[in-house]
């Protein structure tokens, strides 16, 4: 199956900048010579600093389109969603010739098999292709992971530049193994990853048991 990698927010999900951390990882992969694509979701704030919605932002470039805003006919909580933005996000994630695909903003809508879930299910269900990086809300990890193949690796955000660099190297190896990159691989010492993976696996197993 297609390899995928998990990014997730720390314990304080309201202040963790998942978007910024994800884009920093994309930049690190770009410096390694990989062609990255896909999208992230960025919070939109009002004049009082309160969340007023979300935008989809292309990883390659900086184009943004409105995804969720308050609505008098909400689809979830108080939010209404722009279906054409979901379609645009899917186009970004399925461009030809990518070495790594980013899908950001995986949350409660996807847990309900809506939003970006059809795209995720399609990507992870393919036998071959560029590795996928999912940025998942912490409280949604168990739901997403239990419905998907096992992730290759996971990293909690915020992360240090060194952690992002090591994670980028793991993804580069997966891209090479997928036949999407012709870069020569450097030896990687990834012992720190195994500790991170053990902690993360325990977290979502405990979450699934509680549910």
Brief summary:
The chain has 211 residues and is an alpha/beta fold. It has 7 helices and 8 strands. Strands 5-4-3-2-6-7-1-8 form an 8-stranded mixed beta sheet, sandwiched between helices.
SSE layout:
Elements: E1 4-9, H1 18-31, E2 36-45, E3 51-58, E4 64-70, E5 79-81, H2 83-93, E6 100-106, H3 108-111, H4 117-124, E7 132-136, H5 141-146, E8 153-157, H6 161-177, H7 191-210
Parallel strand pairs: 1-7, 1-8, 2-6, 6-7
Antiparallel strand pairs: 2-3, 3-4, 4-5
Could you please describe the fold and organization of this structure?
The protein has helices at residues 18-31, 83-93, 108-111, 117-124, 141-146, 161-177, 191-210, and strands at 4-9, 36-45, 51-58, 64-70, 79-81, 100-106, 132-136, 153-157. It has a single domain (4-210), classed as 3-Layer(aba) Sandwich (Rossmann fold), CATH 3.40.50.300. The protein is an alpha/beta fold and 211 residues long. An 8-stranded mixed beta sheet has the order 5-4-3-2-6-7-1-8, sandwiched between helices. The two termini are 27 Å apart. The longest helix has 20 residues, at 191-210. The protein contains 7 helices and 8 strands.
């Amino acid at each position: 199956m297609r390899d995928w990698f998990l990014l997730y927010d720390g314990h304080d999900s309201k202040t963790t900048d998942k978007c910024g951390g994800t884009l920093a990882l994309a930049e690190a992969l770009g410096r390694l010579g990989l062609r990255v694509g896909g999208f992230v979701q960025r919070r939109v704030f009002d004049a009082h600093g309160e969340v007023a919605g979300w935008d989809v932002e292309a990883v390659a470039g900086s184009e943004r389109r409105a995804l969720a805003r308050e609505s008098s006919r909400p689809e979830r909580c108080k939010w209404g969603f722009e279906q054409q933005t979901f379609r645009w996000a899917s186009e970004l994630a399925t461009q030809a010739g990518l070495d790594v695909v980013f899908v950001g903003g995986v949350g409660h809508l996807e847990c309900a098999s809506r939003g970006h879930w059809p795209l995720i299910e399609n990507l992870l269900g393919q036998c071959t292709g560029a590795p996928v990086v999912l940025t998942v809300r912490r409280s949604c990890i168990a739901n997403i992971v239990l419905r998907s193949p096992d992730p290759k690796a996971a990293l909690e955000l915020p992360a240090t530049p060194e952690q992002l660099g090591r994670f980028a190297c793991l993804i580069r190896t997966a891209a090479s193994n997928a036949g999407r990159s012709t870069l020569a691989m450097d030896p990687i010492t990834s012992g720190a990853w195994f500790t991170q993976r053990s902690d993360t696996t325990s977290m979502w197993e405990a979450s699934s048991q509680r549910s």
